[in-house]
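Researcher: Quick test of sequence recovery. Tokens follow.
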């Protein structure tokens, strides 16, 4: 389950790069998913009303874990936003996403919290190989 969870998060991030941020979020978030903007709200409803976001929102999981039952999991790691996909980082931070196994056996984000850190752009690009592990590492 951990591998498929991380694969799903990475596919979600690839979809954002290829299809656009809103399309990826509309596709990957469950119908009852929650976004924090900054308070909890229905993700799909908010996404239907949200204006399209130009640029590139990219992220990579660096820590992930699943419950013993395999029905819940989470991913967390850094994110970056660039107005021009090849340009400088405008903002960055860390995200935390809770994933829930659906009745059809697929996994889908149940809630997503993007923690904005209004800091100087990170000196190292996000495009590096990340390693995911169970926390605490065993």
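Model:
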């Amino acid at each position: 389950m951990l591998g498929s969870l991380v694969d799903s998060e990475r596919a979600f991030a690839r979809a954002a790069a290829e299809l656009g941020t809103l399309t990826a979020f509309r596709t990957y978030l469950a119908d009852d998913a929650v976004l924090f903007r900054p308070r909890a709200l229905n993700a799909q409803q908010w996404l239907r009303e949200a204006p399209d976001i130009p640029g590139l929102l990219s992220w990579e999981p660096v820590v992930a874990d699943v419950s013993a039952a395999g029905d819940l999991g989470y991913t967390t790691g850094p994110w970056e936003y660039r107005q021009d996909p090849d340009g400088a980082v405008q903002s960055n931070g860390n995200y935390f996403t809770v994933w829930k196994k659906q009745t059809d056996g697929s996994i889908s984000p149940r809630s997503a919290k993007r923690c904005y850190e209004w800091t100087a752009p990170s000196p190292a690009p996000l495009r590096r190989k990340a390693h995911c592990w169970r926390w605490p590492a065993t």
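The two ends are 16 Å apart (CA to CA).
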